[in-house]
């Protein structure tokens, strides 16, 4: 096992509820309502996709860059105040570090949002961080995970990805990585090279190694 890559929202930290609060507030400014059902459409997607969807649903005549700024400012403000790490995530991070396994954070969120999360989690716990600002195509495209592997000088086929969304799982699988899925808002089905669990508390370093081809 040459590296392990963590997704951020909904996998490393419990930020999906923060996204819902900020999205609901932004949609109110656009004169429309926002529900958890709307949020499900955007799990694991990019900011551009989120903004486009919100403008489509609301029909508001507001520049996309304005809505984007409302979203980013709101998320950074809330996350900078602190964010809850998902059960088992810190323990798994510590176990990987103790064994000398390189660890990366790979997220579809923008750098400013990732930086706000890392203030709580600790930037020094990751050997590489890849955000939406670092790629031209976000998940479900494999580019984010291929970029992280390239930056670490490792082979994707010898890496394990931890994800919570179908978009993220698709990106990791397309990159050639093994996957541990911890579904949050959308289901993820088991598959070869993929372990589906209800919490990271169920996963140890040896379980990650077992997913890789011998």
Give an account of the 3D structure:
InterPro entries: HAD-like_sf, HAD-SF_hydro_IA, HAD_2, HAD_sf, PGP-like_dom2. This is HAD family phosphatase. This protein has 214 residues and is an alpha/beta fold. The protein has helices spanning 16-29, 36-40, 47-58, 64-80, 89-98, 111-121, 143-152, 166-175, 205-210, and strands spanning 3-6, 103-106, 128-130, 159-163, 178-181, 194-196. The protein has a 6-stranded parallel beta sheet with strand order 3-2-1-4-5-6. Strand 4, helix 8 and strand 5 form a beta-alpha-beta unit. Helix 1 packs across helix 4 and helix 3 packs across helix 4. The radius of gyration is 17 Å and the shape is globular. The model has no long low-confidence stretch (mean pLDDT 95).
Please tell me the overall pLDDT. Answer: 95
Q: Helical residue percent? A: 40-55%
Number of strands: 6
Q: What is the number of helices? A: 9
Major β-sheet profile: 6 strands, parallel
Beta-strand proportion: 5-15%
Class computed from helices, strands and strand pairing: alpha/beta
CA radius of gyration is 17 Å
Low-confidence stretches: none
Beginning-to-end CA distance, first to last residue: 10 Å
**What overall geometry do the principal axes of the alpha carbons give?**
globular
Strand order of the largest sheet: 3-2-1-4-5-6
Order of helices and strands: EHHHHHEHEHEHEEH
Protein name: HAD family phosphatase
Organism: Nonomuraea composti
């Amino acid at each position: 096992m040459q590296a392990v890559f963590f997704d951020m929202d909904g996998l490393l930290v419990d930020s999906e509820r923060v996204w819902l609060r900020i999205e609901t507030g932004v949609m109110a400014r656009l004169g429309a309502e926002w529900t958890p059902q709307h949020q499900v459409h955007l799990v694991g997607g990019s900011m551009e996709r989120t903004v486009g969807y919100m403008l489509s649903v609301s029909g508001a005549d507001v520049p996309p860059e304005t809505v984007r700024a409302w979203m980013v400012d709101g998320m950074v403000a809330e996350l900078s105040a602190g964010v809850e790490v998902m059960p088992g995530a810190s323990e798994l991070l510590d176990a990987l570090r103790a064994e000398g396994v390189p660890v990366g954070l790979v997220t579809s969120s923008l750098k400013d949002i990732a930086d706000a999360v890392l203030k709580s989690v600790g930037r020094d716990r990751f050997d590489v961080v890849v955000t939406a600002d670092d790629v031209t195509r976000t998940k479900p495209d494999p580019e984010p995970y291929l970029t992280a592997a390239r930056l670490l000088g490792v082979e994707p086929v010898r890496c394990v990805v931890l994800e919570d969304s179908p978009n993220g799982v698709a990106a990791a699988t397309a990159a050639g990585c093994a996957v541990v899925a911890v579904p949050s808002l959308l289901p993820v089905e088991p598959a070869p090279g993929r372990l589906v669990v209800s919490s990271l508390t169920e996963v140890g370093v040896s379980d990650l190694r077992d997913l890789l081809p011998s």
